[in-house]
User: What shape does this take?
Amino acid sequence: MTGILIFSLSFATFLHLSASLFVGILSFFMVIQGDTFTRVRGLPYANIMSTGNIKAFGTNLGEYLVSKESKYLRNSFMFLSLLYLLLSVPLFLLWSASGWVILP
Assistant: This one.
């Protein structure tokens, strides 16, 4: 998703596209991504917005605390790793693009 966003932003910047055309192009790619990537290890997940993943993490962690079945703990760690990746990559890109790179 980040690659598509960077590509579409640079495409819109150089061609001076209108906002409605830019949003249309971005929405088209988001629909393709949302429809294509729907499962990870057999579990449904959201790859455009993270609210469903937060709910699934909390639900699986709660199920583990109640039932002590290890499959719920594995599922909660999987959703936690998805949340970490979905949030850390854009933050890292913002950090690296801002020039805050600390060199020894």
Observations:
- The chain has a mean pLDDT of 78.
